[in-house]
Amino acid sequence: MGVTYDEKERIFKLDTPNTSYILGVVDEEGFLGHIYYGKKLKNSNVSYLLRTQEPPFVPSKNNRERCSFYDRFPFEYPTGGVGDYRESAISIRTQKGHVASQLLYKDYEIMDGKPALEGLPATFGDKDSCTTLKVICEDSIVGMQVELFYTAFSDADVITRSVRVTNTGKEAFYLTKVFSASFDMDNEEYDMLSLHGSWARERHMQRKPLGYGIQNVSSFRGESSHQDHPFLALLGKHTTQETGDVYAMNFVYSGNFRAQAEVSQFDSVRMSMGIHPENFCWKLEPQESFQAPEVVCVYSDKGLDGMTTAFHHLYKKHLIRGEYKDKKRPILINNWEATYFDFDTGKLLSIAKEASKLGIEMLVMDDGWFGKRNSDNCALGDWFVNEEKLPGGLSYLVDEVNKLGMKFGIWMEPEMISPDSELYRAHPDWAIAVPGRTATESRQQYVLDLSRKEVIDYVYERISAILKSANIEYVKWDMNRQLTDIGSYDLPADRQGELYHRYVLAVYALQDRMMKEFPKLLLENCSGGGARFDPGMLYYSPQIWCSDDADAIERLEIQEGTALIYPLSTMGAHVSDCPNHTVGRVTPFETRGIVALAGTFGYELDVTKISKEDRDKIPEQVAMYHKYNDLVRQGDYYRLASYSQNHKFDCWEVVSEDKTEALVTFVQVMNRANFKSRRLLLKGLDADKYYKIEGEATVYSGDTLMHAGILLQNMWGDFQAKLLHFVEA
Ligand code: GLA
Q: How many CB atoms lie within 10 A of CB 690?
């Protein structure tokens, strides 16, 4: 395992438990080529795959077919402007306006563990869990050094990549594109899998055949977005949930991104991922460096299940941090859908009183507690308690909630400023805008220019003061609009192209500072629901609100797409009111509870107003959460049936690490008349162990459950759900 270098052949090999990644240096000029990524190989003697002996594509000095070589060679980190016409991974512009560059191998270093990425979230590991390879390349004409970092994990089938660019010349140059990963493979007729969505419809899976040319998913909305997700996978034509090849990339970043696959004229595929080049232009002065974010690469020969397991294991062990990394989260009740802006201390306390009797453990006060915020059209930025609504301030309210034996959490949207706010009236230039152009409003708000130190300091001072003013144990950090009118009153003309990225770095710096000052805080990120559900945010918050759509049936597809990559412990999921506030659907209270159980679990309704019948079910759901949450959070997740594909029912399973228990969730979306029972095959059990369903007498062997399966009877009515708890017999 780890990283090896074959000095004679000039080949680097990275190994994880079941995969190998191989790259090599070719020719005396030092071209760096991608040789192999796939199932683990014993040896690294596969350099023939670079096809450097196939005329006219040979890497000899500038001969008549030099361009053909450039345009066909599987570059490990391709540049543009000298003959490779496929998408480059890096672009620059010199002071003289030239854009050509070429990176040639210079040196390497192999390190135990994994260096942190300055200012950026990234996966981490020590010498026992990973090894890092640094390959140094340079363009001596531009005066640019590029360090390519690769980390191979020994406890997850993952290779991470990142890039650092340094100006080693005498003049500044502009980085106009810097992807974090790229590799070229032969095209094996792949399908492309991505996660597409919209507000309240995040992360729906989309699979389509890969054709010639460029296909990509991207965001230049300033955040990872509801619409596309910083994830891309290439799947063999016959790849299924359980079998076949998958090559996946996921970006540890929360801003603009592009994830791309390009099929060339020679039937090769170039897969790449990085910061979106749209409006990106970073000035690098001599000796300055730019650190690009991290890409997580996964190869699985066990279909999507193998890919999901690799991501889940990595993120659980090597990305999520802090107090709640391995801890059960308090069951919360959030007042947003219960009251919207119409609340005061009395109303919140009456909800808390009822909730505490039912076993709910934390009250979260959502939007509307500050400034003159009685609707969503004003006051963002005025982070001062509205004492008309909350007489006695936060400390009185929080003390009263604490007296009920409950924790208290608060909503904030620190990155924003309303045009109608005291803050904007005092500092109109603090909003992101192009001077002279009226900036576009969205939800009647602007985004703060977090590239300015005084703005960050103001925001942080407010966050810190609020958190110190009472016993606040949870923050829901929201971000409710995307960026437009990219302009900073502070940055010089040739640094305006840095604003998008500086903004993301500032969000990370703010959350980092907050978590350092308040290390016991439970942070839940949110962005108009799940528009910033990405590994970057997971580095700061162990959970993220999945979607503003909490309808149990809509959630099936949203949670399926989210759990394709992210552990169940990260998915903010609540039981919400009915008819549902987003789609108007009426679903049984039990079903809402069972679906929310696959995430962090909580309530988003007014417990004082729902029917007694539903309210009486809450203590049972609370008990169910306490009984199963360790398993849900720590176990291995498997998808057994997908409603998004069969349009009838959904089914997933979580198996404990020691395979002594499993929880199967079955949701029958639509009932069917005159229908036989369904056969369901389990996954991930120990074939030699014996199991029974808790409360039933029949004993099944693990292999029977996985290969012959069980029968599930039809349930009466639509939107029905059922839990089956398998325990070792
Ligand atoms: C966003 C969030 C909601 C709620 C509102 C408050 O839409 O996703 O959960 O907090 O903001 O304005």
A: 13
